[in-house]
Design brief:
The structure is a single chain. By secondary structure, the protein is α/β, with parallel strands linked by helices. It has two domains: 155 residues, Medium-chain alcohol dehydrogenases, catalytic domain (Quinone Oxidoreductase, Chain A, domain 1); 137 residues, NAD(P)-binding Rossmann-like Domain (Rossmann fold, 3-Layer(aba) Sandwich). Helix 4 packs across helix 10 and helix 7 packs parallel to helix 8. The longest helix has 14 residues. The two termini are 24 Å apart. Bound molecules: zinc ion (2 copies). The site of one zinc ion has 6 residues, from helix 4.
């Protein structure tokens, strides 16, 4: 078993108030029972991160306090294990998930731990600690040199996958959960709306699962990226009506399944209009507010199934395998890397899509 020199303190990027980040020197956390301490090697910035920085998740109580350490799309190496940890040892290379369920509620017992019934009951402020964690959202995250994780949130990284690519596990997993819920029809037609990192992963995953044709809807350089990564048809919604075009491409029948990854307020409506009778629409994106319209009569007449898809439960093993085989071309999603000290600049490049940025990775 390897041993590691673990320092007393570490660098951490902390959110001290909305729109105010500070590099801090803080104690290295200690793993409790069933937990391990990880040296964080790579953390990717997620679309949710800038939103949280700006106070866009006050309704969800993210972050619950200041100063707060964000970051949830990470990979690193185990350097110490807590009491009772058997499977993992120091030296193991692991990729993380943001969610660790309580493990005992009815949803967790059925494997639905991202919708744990004990969400947020974490023992803070004298509340009952059910063991639920949502790292980087209401529990300390990965924008630091070290962090502690429950082993249920960890997966071994295949040898040929580096830490930066392994940090794509979360994003690719969010896509894959939606793709699985939609149920790709082998040889059929899949539509992905929104060629951001999640949409691009969904597109590559549909192909890996045997979709006959994947149509990507988007615009600009990201749509070009989709073409480069293997989308069969790219529809620029600024140049043509995506609903009309999908119907034309399918002889008026519609797509077998639509993965909505764009977050545009009118996309769920369009998704229902371009999917075939008895087709499925997976809502993978989140929206500025809850007042999104769907064509209820069309949903009824056409027996359309709409499924919500939250985060990435039970998909990391498959996704890491796909990152290993190249079915998901993780390295092509990463456009920039920055040290932890330059986190603010990294967020700016990511958020404002500077020089074609897609996934921006931090090296703490
Ligand atoms: Zn994320
Ligand atoms: Zn639970």
């Amino acid at each position: 078993m390897d041993t590691y020199n673990i320092p007393e303190t570490m660098k951490a990027m902390t959110l001290v108030a909305y729109d105010k980040l500070e590099l801090a020197q803080i104690p290295v956390p200690k793993p409790g029972p069933g937990e391990v301490l990880c040296r964080i090697k790579s953390v990717a910035i997620c679309g949710s991160d800038p939103k949280m920085i700006h106070g866009g998740y006050k309704f969800a109580n993210w972050p619950p306090y200041f100063p707060f350490i964000m970051g949830h799309e990470w990979a690193g190496q185990i350097v110490a294990v807590g009491e009772g940890v058997k499977d993992f040892v120091p030296g193991d290379r692991v990729a993380g998930e943001a969610h660790a369920g309580c493990g005992t509620c009815d949803n967790c017992k059925h494997g639905h731990y991202t919708v744990c019934l004990n969400y947020g009951k974490d023992g803070r402020d004298g509340a009952l600690d059910t063991g639920h964690r949502h790292y980087g959202f209401y529990w300390q995250g990965a924008n630091a040199e070290y962090n502690v994780y429950k082993v249920s949130a960890l997966h071994w990284i295949p040898d040929n996958v580096d830490y930066d690519v392994a940090a794509m596990n979360d994003c690719a997993g969010v896509a894959f959960h939606g793709v699985q819920l939609a149920g790709v029809s082998p040889g059929g037609t899949s539509v992905v709306m929104g060629p951001g990192a999640i949409g691009l992963c969904a597109m590559m995953e549909c192909k890996a699962l045997g979709s006959g044709r994947v149509i990507m809807i988007g615009r600009g350089s990201k749509l070009e990226k989709a073409r480069e990564l293997g989308a069969d048809v790219c529809i620029d919604f600024e140049k043509e009506d995506p609903v009309q075009r999908v119907l034309e491409l399918t002889n008026g029948v519609g797509a077998d399944e639509v993965m909505e990854c764009s977050g545009a307020m009118d996309s769920p409506m369009k998704a229902c209009q371009m999917v075939r009778k008895t087709g499925t629409v997976a809502i993978i994106a989140t929206y500025h507010n809850n007042e999104v319209l769907i064509p209820a009569n069309t949903v009824n007449f056409n027996e359309i199934r709409i499924v919500g898809s939250k985060a990435n439960p039970n998909v990391s093993e498959q996704v890491l395998h796909f990152l290993s085989t190249g079915a998901i071309q993780g390295e092509k999603l990463i456009t920039h890397t920055f040290p932890l000290e330059e986190y603010e600049q990294a967020v700016d490049v990511f958020e404002n899509k500077k020089d074609g940025s897609l996934k921006v990775v931090i090296h703490p």
